[in-house]
Amino acid sequence: MDAMDNCTDSKDRILDKAEALFAEKGFHAVTVREITQAAHCNLAAVNYHFGNKQNLYLEVFRTRWMPRARRVQACFKDVLSTQDERSLAGIVHALAEAFLKGPLTDDERLCHSQLMIREMAKPGLATDMLVDEVIKPFFGDLVVLLGPYLPENGERERVMLDIVSIFAMVIYFNFARVPVTRVTGQEYDEVFKERLVEHIVRFCLKGLDMDKKEGA
Amino acid sequence: MDAMDNCTDSKDRILDKAEALFAEKGFHAVTVREITQAAHCNLAAVNYHFGNKQNLYLEVFRTRWMPRARRVQACFKDVLSTQDERSLAGIVHALAEAFLKGPLTDDERLCHSQLMIREMAKPGLATDMLVDEVIKPFFGDLVVLLGPYLPENGERERVMLDIVSIFAMVIYFNFARVPVTRVTGQEYDEVFKERLVEHIVRFCLKGLDMDKKEGA
DNA sequence: GTCTATAGCAGGATAGAC
DNA sequence: GTCTATCCTGCTATAGAC
Prior knowledge:
2 copies of one chain form a homodimer.
Chain A: H1 10-25, H2 32-38, H3 45-50, H4 53-82, H5 88-100, H6 106-121, H7 127-146, H8 156-175, H9 177-184, H10 190-206
The first copy, chain A, binds a DNA duplex through residues 9-10, 31-33, 41-49, 51-53.
């Protein structure tokens, strides 16, 4: 398809297409034939370069998913460092922005969260790598970062749940595009995504925040 | 396994096991052989009763998923009707409670949300049925119910996003048990689930709500 | 490093006895 | 309704020419 296809070697093309297909359909629903056809190379290339299908899947995470996760985290820290004053609102906004708009293209972002969700749904081949090398360290950073805003020092669990909740929002709105679009009637264009970031920041900071009009 | 297995007919046993397996692994990762073995019946039974694997999958949604979704919604309305005064907090609490504790057993709830998430991740065989017959009508009800609390009548989209956000929390905490457990160190026992309900209600109503200690 | 050909096997589906 | 036996397709993986 792409004019560049012949410039990059088949190993890279396979990794690219494999990632997209694994994200879209899941490991079992994708066949090696499908991948090699999409990558415009021979069926045997997967076994030659990666040994077998499982290892190709793992390589997708090693060479594609992990670096991208690091890019997003770097973006988050970049945004933070440019803020002259540190505030809770600033941190949440940086988080939502890095994950929902950040350095990734739309396709990358969708692909990225789909791969993660699939792996998180049920412990899979790449779960350990993902949890130990990316999720846990990043959560550790966030706990430290949000420490000053803790109600008490003892309530570590509450902070954990709050952080997870922010991710819940970001990941859900990325992943559940189909029902969101069907229910709201909104396509995921730039305008809507900007509104989503605003919504997520507001919701995470203030919740529904409709108390003014209590009493039906 | 169960002592009751021989009492219910094979059609029901197949539906039960198929649902659990489809939820756990996804459509493609499950084989008909696996299902029939788990259901202690013959391989040919699936084709005899359901024609083919795809139709079995659809029947799982028709005869298992949909009735359960209705039970949860009924529970939500029940709780609402017992509240003497209607309030935003009451509605959110009823929602979180119905979905996170409600009428379902733990296994049912996990199974239920896994099936839905898989279907929502990418439009699948049952997506239309699910969206048109369950999600859209229920969202319609919620929009009406939350209408009195709208900031303005024009802001329908904001209410939609708020409702979706509540579901995002509920579904994520149900679905992403693995990372939640790994990060928080908490198993999903009764105590933790009760805390989760409290957390979700609080978070949805008030967000992070840490403004008191602004300024690091 | 790329390709063809094929081994070897697992899965879905069916025919037909009981 | 249940079972056995079997067909056939489509998959992963490999061997070996180029």
